[in-house]
Amino acid sequence: MYILERLNVQKKTESEYIKQKLINMGFQVIGEECTKNEEQQNIAELLQVENEKLKTELQELQTEYEKLKTELQGGNEYADTDGKTENVKEVTRGKK
Q1: Which among 90, 92, 61 is positioned nearest to 78, based on CA atoms?
Q2: Which pLDDT does position 32 carry in this prediction?
Q3: In whole angstroms, what is the distance from residue 14 CA to residue 28 CA?
Q4: DSSP state string for 28-96
Q5: Counting Cβ atoms within 10 Å, is residue 78 exposed (0-12), middle (13-18) or buried (19+)?
Q6: Residue 27 neighbours by CB under 8 Å, 6+ apart
Q7: Who is most buried in 6, 42, 45, 68, counting CB within 10 A?
Q8: What pLDDT is attached to residue 41?
Q9: Which of 1-15, 33-47, 62-76, 80-94 has the highest mean pLDDT?
Q10: Would you say the pTM of this structure is higher than 0.70?
Q11: In this predicted model, what pLDDT tens digit does every residue of 1-38 receive, in sequence order?
Q12: How far apart are CA 84 and CA 88, in angstroms?
């Protein structure tokens, strides 16, 4: 019986969390009148926004990775932050 009560409380808590998240994003949730389909649609929109943010972040990380990879592999070249590549003279150490 305790497990069933615990699951019910957890389900209510998750539902309230989702509703609050949607309200914070500007969605209007009027009491309990929000039907299951509307709730699922709101959740889908929330997930889509989050997905777009993650895609943008991934793209930025991939760009940074490619910049660092080019810098390490090139030896005498490196990528500037503006995306251009400049030549850098090699420095050799030797006795005079």
Answers
A1: 90
A2: 54
A3: 18
A4: ---TT---HHHHHHHHHHHHHHHHHHHHHHHHHHHHHHHHHHHHHHHSSEEE-TTS-EEE-PPP-----
A5: middle
A6: 42, 45
A7: 42
A8: 85
A9: 62-76
A10: no
A11: 566 666 666 666 777 777 777 777 776 656 555 567 77
A12: 13
